[in-house]
UniProtKB/TrEMBL annotation:
Annotated keywords: Isomerase, Lactose metabolism
Stated family: Belongs to the LacAB/RpiB family.
Native source species: Candidatus Enterococcus lowellii
Membrane-spanning residues: none
Parts forming coiled coils: none
Pfam families, A to Z: LacAB_rpiB (PF02502)
Name assigned to this protein: Ribose 5-phosphate isomerase B
Superkingdom of this protein's organism: Bacteria
Length: 143
């Protein structure tokens, strides 16, 4: 499995922490930026980089981080085939893989603590899409 990860300036520190967490878990990732917390950048550019990586099948799924996770999710979800979920708790992280087959998880550096953010990523990565009626509902969204 390979993961695309990106943030704006408001999510840079959490991105770096999650990269270390992915490495500890021996999970391959590609960092699409940004490269500094002190330089203001536009989150839609980073959401699009990760969406493109998924849609071209260069990676399997993605992690996007901004201050709230909201701007990233709004931007990424403009792409057909992208299901980006803003998640702030472990239950929802598991459910959004099992039910929504979310292929991007969006995190909020200014809201969620580091330890919880790592648990959220783990819960999402370790869950399995349940298909069946959930696939029908995803098909409804896509169509
Ligand atoms: C950047 O200041 C902030 O708007 C961004 O990180 C994010 O919260 C947007 O949704």
């Amino acid at each position: 499995m390979k993961i695309a990860i990106a943030s704006n300036h408001g999510g840079f520190e959490l991105k770096e922490l999650l990269k270390a967490h992915l490495s500890e878990r021996d999970i391959d990732y590609e960092d699409f930026g940004t490269t500094a917390a002190m330089v203001s950048v536009d989150y839609p550019n980073y959401a699009q980089k990760v969406a493109n990586a998924i849609l071209t099948e260069a990676v399997d799924c993605g992690i996007l981080i901004c201050g709230t996770g909201i701007g990233m999710s709004i931007a990424a979800n403009r792409n057909k085939g992208i299901r980006a979920a803003v998640v702030g708790d472990v239950f929802s992280a598991k459910a959004t893989k099992e039910h929504n087959n979310a292929n991007i998880i969006c995190l909020d550096q200014r809201v969620t603590g580091d330890g919880l953010a790592q648990m959220i990523v783990d819960a999402w990565l370790d869950a399995t899409f349940q298909g069946k009626r959930h696939q029908n509902r995803i098909d409804m969204i896509e169509n």
